[in-house]
């Protein structure tokens, strides 16, 4: 483990490495406690610099021997790497190291999961495998030989010689070390072939432990769809003879785009109707696409340094959302993405962890795989596309691939491509990459003569380390509706560049109703004092699905806030307006299900804090329950009809049409449970023939505190399946009545199947607690103490996952003095633990500010 005083690295300090790597040859002799790795690396002086310091990263390695051009050398070895005197000209470095994959619980570098060997090298895991310049701008082709008695041995690139006890792999595409991968184990594959549009056949394999083969069909289909889509939409073809995917049970993140050998968290690739929900199927399709798309946006063109992470991640998330929009419903995908952005990125950008999409300093890069880099990074690309238009976006992307293939690039390179392809000056737009915080946008309307004028003001509150904020380029998509509901001005893109700016629409016969920020055209908080009538009007008439949904969401938020702050009764006008939309059989059931989804308790807490009211988690929970109950009571006559509309009669398929119906059905069942205490939910639980229906019913029962029998039956039926048991652990905490959530989580840490070293299981318990808003924020601090205690324990074994989960505390400043003090104490106790990791120490330090 690294020491707890990591150093801060600055973007402005970038310098190239003094050597280029011409070739890497690696041999692995696998053994759980003592794997031997020998490396033979050809270095040559880098003509771009005169600095010839020869420093190779290396951590937790036992150096057995080192040679330069065949002669033994004795390098200077520290905890972080080695230095050595080297010749002035090209030379060959050879080293042998010993590592212990079986002892690696951090899941970075080479480790073991269920008896199989696997690797995770992004961002800085390769240095735990051998000594190497472990930085993304050092790219090389790799030859790998694996020796073991395991039947399957895989690495990047194309297969070479293989025989009894060994397998060789050759990757012709120069790559940084973070894309290196190795897998060995008793695995079986579902296989297929994909023929690229230029006619080259590619062998596809999805490798799993033998019992998991029935869960591989969906993943492989998703891979083929992704390969075809990238050819059709971006003109990108695959570039090796094989594409291997491996499912691994112990994995810190969702998946990893290693060249030609993607490694997946089994939860992000394995699916079957009986064990996975519709949401799981959709997520798997998206993650397979995401990792596959990285082959061009990340692998063929990579990042110069880790500050440029959004170069590959923002673009690849943007590409995978386009893919999902094409495969499923574009408006439903967009609304889902906005819900997610507001739930995860907005709190980050408005709290102590706020950082620019391209950070300019960090201590531990693992802590910067954030919603800001990924999701806001994707929003920035969406804005760029909106501003330049679809054709110029396509031109710019073609130029990007042509100009930078095989290179390690920066955000400057990316923006220059857009400037060159479109003739636009993007210097102001670049602020989206360098300025942190969520811009707030307010608007005033004026109607004079026949001129209708919208005046916008933008302002970004200060964020840690950034006191001054400059105006950003905001693409604001606007439509105007006449009072009778007709659209009089179709979607028009206003380009705002000033702190305050007006846009006039002449010749308006009557005062229109504006539909603002259509499609959520910029990731801002729209501060708009729309009246309930205006919102209800937009809910009924807006042609833009996002704005229509947003109008309903705004009404729900206002009703809930009034209930929390003034004890107002549930807003009947809102319920009746919503009913019109929800009952409309012409509308997509998935869209109607989204309309029925209430603002989250955390979102309400944020909105209250912004309005100057200290949020009370119990009051928020109670208000939400009261509104749902009122809705259920007022719509009693409608619910059976809605349930019928949501019924699927065909055999199960995880497609958009069926999933939409089941999502609507789940929302209806949740209302029904408020009326019958769980009778309908129990009936659905018992008769369900797929996991989506079973789990939504179980969730209703848990929320009604009537799930004991169902939970026992579920456990008895599924104790053999880890992924299903993660659902079982999670749901009974996530949806537990708030007073019980922390106790339930504590109790489940004593369950024989609770394994803290498995990130999925740890998240199923502790992540679920953090997501039960009122449960986590229980007034006596039990939720805080439990989470902090377990984060401390996990930190000693797996700092990366532990530190990520500490983000649950990022909103601590919102709450009342008592809760604040309890959260601070929990964080300080965590901070003061002996041997705290660098990851966690950076995180807690930033959280406490
Ligand atoms: N690059 C992968 C996810 C990933 C990110 C960070 C990791 O370790 C710090 C590992 C994997 C992706 O975007 O899918
Ligand atoms: Zn990615």
From TrEMBL:
Residues 533-848 form the Peptidase M1 alanyl aminopeptidase C-terminal domain. CDD domains: M1_APN (cd09600). Its cofactor is Zn(2+). Residues 34-179 form the Aminopeptidase N-like N-terminal domain. Coiled coil: none annotated. Residues 437-528 form the Peptidase M1 alanyl aminopeptidase Ig-like fold domain. Residues 218-432 form the Peptidase M1 membrane alanine aminopeptidase domain. It holds the Pfam family Peptidase_M1_N. The keyword Metal-binding applies. The keyword Cell membrane does not apply. Signal peptide: none annotated. It comes from the Bacteria. Its EC number is 3.4.11.2. SUPFAM superfamilies: Leukotriene A4 hydrolase N-terminal domain, Metalloproteases ('zincins'), catalytic domain. It catalyses: Release of an N-terminal amino acid, Xaa-|-Yaa- from a peptide, amide or arylamide. Xaa is preferably Ala, but may be most amino acids including Pro (slow action). When a terminal hydrophobic residue is followed by a prolyl residue, the two may be released as an intact Xaa-Pro dipeptide. One of its GO terms (molecular function) is alanyl aminopeptidase activity. Keywords: Aminopeptidase, Hydrolase, Metal-binding, Metalloprotease, Protease, Zinc. GO terms for biological process: proteolysis. InterPro entries: Aminopeptidase_N-like_N, Aminopeptidase_N-like_N_sf, PepN_Ig-like_sf, Peptidase_M1, Peptidase_M1_dom, Peptidase_M1_pepN, Peptidase_M1_pepN_C, Peptidase_M1_pepN_C_sf. Belongs to the peptidase M1 family. NCBIfam families: pepN_proteo. PANTHER family: PUROMYCIN-SENSITIVE AMINOPEPTIDASE. This is Aminopeptidase N. It comes from Roseivivax jejudonensis.
